[in-house]
Write a structure and sequence with these properties.
Elements lengths: L1 H22 L7 E6 L7 E5 L3 E4 L3 E5 L5 E5 L3 E6 L4 E5 L3
Antiparallel strand pairs: 1-2, 1-6, 3-4, 4-5, 6-7
Length: 94
């Protein structure tokens, strides 16, 4: 049962990111992704969806401020939200 919920979570994150990028691209900067990032304050990093460079089967990638491309696996995603509307699209349960 646990495997199915993890599989659903990963596909839900992927489909949510694809929805933002492909169907709401005019407002892409309104969306934020929070993920576990060791070394960041409180071990959480926030990026704008406009920084995403690719959405893949088990991860997404983005360009860091120094220009390097980073890959983040979906199990590290904590929250996806629309910052303008305050709408939470995905929130990882503790």
């Amino acid at each position: 049962m646990r495997y199915r919920s993890v599989k659903w979570m990963k596909s839900h994150i992927r489909s949510t990111l694809n929805q933002i990028i492909w169907y709401d691209s005019s407002n892409i900067a309104d969306y934020e992704i929070f993920f576990l990032h060791r070394g960041a304050p409180c071990d959480v990093r926030r990026i704008s969806a406009s920084e995403i460079t690719g959405v893949f089967r088990g991860c997404f990638s983005f360009k860091d401020s120094d220009g390097t491309e980073k890959t983040i696996p979906y199990h590290r995603v904590l929250l996806i939200k629309n910052r303008v509307k305050g709408e939470v699209l995905f929130e990882k349960r503790p």
